[in-house]
Amino acid sequence: MIQTVNLQKLFATEEVETTALNGINMDVKDGEFVAIMGPSGCGKSTLLNILGLLDNPSEGEYNFYGTAVAKMTERQRAQLRKGSIGFVFQSFNLIDELTVYENVELPLLYLKTPADERKIRVEEALSRMNIMHRRNHFPQQLSGGQQQRTAIARAVVAKPKLILADEPTGNLDSVNGEEVMKLLGELNDEGTTIIMVTHSPYDAGFAHRIVNLFDGKVVTENFHV
Amino acid sequence: MFRNYLKIAWRSLAKNKLFSGINVFGLALGMACGLVIGLWVSDALSYDRFLPDAERIHFVRVNFQNPVTGEIATNWVTPGPLQEVIAQHIPEVAAVTKINYGPELLIKPVGRSAAEKSGKEKGHYATDDFFGVFDLPALAGNPKVALAQTNQIVITRTVAENYFTRSGSDYRQALGKTLQLDNDKFYVVGAIIENLPSTSTLQFGWLVNWKVQQQDWMKKWGNNSFQTFVRLQPNVTLEQAEKAMKIIYPRFAGKNFDIGRPTLQPITDLHLYADYKNGKAVGGRIEYVRIFSLVALFILLIACINFINLATARSAMRAKEVGVRKVVGALRSSLIGQFLGESVLTSLLAICLALLMVALALPTFNTTFGKRLTLDLTNPVLWLGIAGLVLITGFLSGSYPALFLSGLQPVRILKGTGLAIQMQVGNGRSAASPALFRQTLVVFQFSLSIFLIAGMLAVGQQMDYLRTKNLGLDRENVIYVPLEGALNAGNKTETFRQEVMRQPSVAAATTASDLPLNIQSSSGDLEWPGKLPTTESNVSTLEVGGDFIRTMNIKLLDGRDFRTAGLADSASYIINEATARMMNMKAPVGQEVKFWRGKGRIVGLMKDFHLKSLHEAISPLIMMYNPLENGYLLVKTRAGQTQQAIADLERLTKQFNPNYPFSYHFVDEAYEQLYKTEQQVNTLVNSFGMLAILISCLGLFGLAAFTAEQRTKEIGVRKVLGASVTNIIGLLSKDFLKLVMIALILATPLAWLALSKWLSSFEYSTGLSWWVFALSGLMAIGIAMLTVSFQSIKAALMNPVKSLRSE
Predict the structure, then answer these.
(1) Shortest CA gap A205–chain B (Å)
(2) How far is Cα of residue B534 from the mean position of the Cα atoms in its chain?
(3) How is residue B769 annotated by DSSP?
(4) Is A214 exposed, middle or buried (0-12, 13-18, 19+ CB in 10 A)?
(5) If you average pLDDT over residues B480-498, what whole number do you get?
(6) Which residue, B284, B402, B626, B659, could crosslink B543 as a Cys pair with Cβ 3.0–4.6 Å?
(7) Closest Cα partner for A57 from A66, A45, A67, A69?
């Protein structure tokens, strides 16, 4: 259960001050699939970063599964984030020096999951994403679709309550993009909450609800049934 | 998790071969330096600590305070009676011994079983209680008992092995055998002791009872010639013993010498603190220990700076990893751990290479410095040192990159814009960026390098000065031959000298009791009319044969050289200007003085020449004529006929003195020996200076490569817009040269201070020239330029189409 109240975010450089978010009120229920849309620069990614506990809002409140997190330090946020949120990025963000298997294993290492359990869960995630046969390859040796499936495997391996996806199909062709969206849909069907930023109306069609942002404000919300 | 770190560390090392190579090689060089210097320092610090109860053993020096000036002069040689008085009157002392200077004498084994070998070994005449002071381990016989006998000799294992055993047989066979010393007296081997380790200040092959060579002059308080050692009673402190010894000179030495005060130096300090000023140990080798420890630290620091610079410069490449790790749950602390782990791994690799380098370099180092340092891998202390070196280097070089990288914000990195990363990594144009930090480190690195180059140049300059300085006497083409056996027996010495003079290859020849470049013996016995009881009267003494002044080409200011005919000059004296000044005599020739030969006249006044190393001022000297027994024959050869002269000398020596092997040396070599330490310092400073520069340049090379890589696009755009190759090279080199210039400005005053201090340890030194600093700056700039321009030219020559397309 996620709730934001009057969320504000300002970016200040020496010369200019930019308002990225301007009073966002948003509720996301358990098991929901929400798509956030809007033109470039409207604050989609900033919102996602705050929802993902990577950044703090300048003002406003954020309630993350019963915890007020808006004023938390980075260290506290990191502790809370660990194991409870999975991230999927447009540019995959896999570590080049690690193999597919090792990339997926990483969250479990930071959770100090015992080795035998780690092995079971990594293999489970890899099979699920149909990337098991590439387990010993390095990211550069994979296609974009394979890289993104690896990234999704990494996002789900710790069984988080929430997955945040930032334009997950943005760097993929339509076939691979379709596949990734189906995987996210399946995860949502199994009960994982998903918040996704996208430019693609097609991708947004997989969501239960679309939140449209413009100049840092929520302008419309459309519900699918 | 640890395995994961290790994997990443290893893979990123392997992926960036150039940068990893620079890091590992640079660190290895730094560590190898650290290890070699560490071995050398621990060797220097361990001198005489092998002795049982070393903390109770002390070396006796004597302070003489000038009643007028208040200055204290400290003698390291003591008069003969001191030991006897200490033994009888100072209950705080458990044992006391004195030894003579330690001549190298001919050893010849006698008897059927002896391997028929003879040779020279250094040894001492020592008083009975030598082994009461130095409890050296006996291998056979009882050294204490043996030394107490005047017909026995104590030898070391090596001497026993060399002269008394055939290959493979037991050295103990030497016990009870007879040997002849100096072709003169016979001794029975009464005891064999273990060899002295190389970290022993005393080095000898044999010991014989003092009484054998005792002469009347050795019983005088005015003659300082012997080294005295004491072992204190348990629980007696150095201060208590010194206090007890205060009474010795006033009570026993007589009115001329009653101002002497014995002072004790722990034997473990003897090797490190040889220089005394105002009665206190002020320095000696310890200064070099300090200097080189500092140099090792500098070089290690320079290598660590390379690591820091390359790591932070390349952080853009690691930034994504940091972001991802943070997103999937890494805490900052675990990232710090990871990056520190990587730097420790790098230093582990480096130490392996460093150990290899040390193993290869040690033989050369040992030959150059006359040391026996080894990389003893069974020594736990060495491993402790190695572990310490790895950890310190790892943490020193890893801490800043670790703190910096782990602090990167994932939000900005993972969006994947190059600019966002650039902002964090720094491009050198905004203040307080990591780039500024890098530049600061480069400045620091080059300051150290320039400091070392200036050191190299100045030390070299001083060494040249020493080599070429006019000492007031000739040292070139002068050979000396130690007078021993039949050459040192009564009239034969003069006959031999006359015969040598008759050789066409010889220009002149003389004899002397000491080498004239290093006159050790001194006396306070000189009396002259008008001398006040408070006047300092310490003079160096030299006994010479005929033609001394001519052979050594010393300038005679007034009077004449000694006459060789008859006994006319047996009570005549020749002095130098310093003595005349001391006696306050304007025209000393013809004046009557009293010295060892009784009342006599001064017959000659010499221009001052250097009696000792240039560390010391020219002191007063008095010379006496002695055509009979003496220490050395000095031969000035005719130009270009040195080889012939040596052959002639060998023939004559064999004829006059068939029982001794012929040996000769050059005076200028002996002169260079006086500056052995400085020569070694010169070599060390040179090697370390070069290393520092090399390592700094490695780092600069890496940074330049990185900058060129980072600015590929900029260079491409500039070229498209019409920039020439020269423009680009200038653009890329300018920034680095600026840093080296700043380093020059910072390093010059510091180097000036340090080098002035070093030069002031010489009584005579070349001044510090401005060009030393100008040249070091130029060299640093030149070397930096070469290093940077390689990368700059490469970048400038690149086809802009390539670099722009790749963006």
Answers:
(1) 24
(2) 38
(3) P
(4) middle
(5) 86
(6) B626
(7) A69
Structure tokens at B88: 């009888």
Q: Does A214 touch chain B (CB under 8 A)?
A: no
Burial class (CB within 10 angstroms; exposed 0-12, middle 13-18, buried 19+) of B696: buried
Reference B190, options B160, B158, B151, B152; nearest CA is B152
Taking a C-beta distance cutoff of 8 angstroms, is the pair B746, B447 a contact? yes
Residue the block writes with tokens 């990211």? A139
**Pairwise CA distance, residues B607 & B741, whole Å:** 49
Q: What would the two tokens of residue A71 be? A: 């004023």
* Element holding A222 (H helix, E strand): strand A217-223
What is the 8-class DSSP label of residue A14?
S
First to last CA, chain A: 20
Average pLDDT, chain B: 86
* ipTM exceeding cut-off 0.85 for this assembly: no
Chain A touched by B314 (CB under 8 Å): no
Residues of B in contact with A108 (CB under 8 A): none
* Residue B615 predicted with pLDDT over 80: no
Q: Which residue has the tokens 């060399």?
A: B162
Between B786 and A163, whose confidence is greater?
Answer: A163
Q: Are residues A93 and B332, on separate chains, in Cβ contact within 8 Å? A: no
Cα–Cα dist B277/B259, whole Å? 17
Nearest CA in chain A to B15: A97
Q: Report the gap between the CA of B703 and the closest CA in chain A (Å).
A: 23
Q: Inter-axis angle of helices B434-468 and B285-313, to 10 degrees?
A: 150
- The two three-digit tokens of residue B245, written as one number: 């010894």
Q: Which H helix or E strand runs over B36? A: helix B17-45
Tens-place pLDDT, residues B617-665:
888 999 999 888 788 999 999 988 999 999 999 999 989 988 888 889 9
pLDDT at B557 over 50: yes
* Residues 6+ positions from B791 with CB-CB distance below 8 Å: B701, B704, B705, B707, B708, B732
The Cα B660–Cα B92 span in angstroms is 45
Contact state of A89 with B414 under an 8 Å Cβ cutoff: yes
Element (H, E) at A97: none
> Are A85 and A27 in contact, with CB atoms under 8 Å apart?
no
Helix (H) or strand (E) holding B593: strand B592-595
Token pair, residue B42, equals: 């621990």
Helix B725-759, helix B770-797: angle, nearest 10:
160
Chain A residues with beta carbon closer than 8 angstroms to that of B410: 54
Considering only CB atoms, which chain B residues are within 8 Å of A125? none
Nearest chain A Cα to B2, which residue? Answer: A109
Measure in Å the smallest separation between the Cα of A225 and chain B Cα atoms.
32
For the segment A128-148, what is each residue's pLDDT rounded down to a tens digit? 889 999 999 999 899 989 999
Q: Check residue B644 and give its pLDDT.
A: 93
**B659 vs B9, B351, B551, CA distance in Å?**
71, 55, 28
Residue A172 and residue A206 in contact, taking contact as beta carbons nearer than 8 Å: no
- Record: contact A97-B8, CB cut-off 8 A: yes
* Token pair belonging to A173: 């062709």
Please check the confidence at residue B416 and state whether its pLDDT lies above 60.
no
Judge whether B412 is closer than 8 Å to chain A, CB to CB: no
Q: Which residue in B4, B326, B330 is closest to A102 by CB distance?
A: B4
Q: Does A94 touch chain B (CB under 8 A)?
A: yes
Kindly determine whether residue B324 and residue A95, on different chains, have CB atoms separated by under 8 Å: yes
A136 part of contact set with chain B, CB < 8 Å: no
A80 touches chain B (CB under 8 A): no
A98 vs B4: CB contact, 8 Å cut-off? yes
Q: Is the separation of the CB atoms in A70 and A62 below 8 Å? A: yes
CA B288 from centre of chain: 7
Query: Helices in B261-331 by DSSP H: which ranges?
Result: 267-270, 285-313, 315-327
Of A178, A183, A172, A180, nearest to A144 (Cα)?
A172
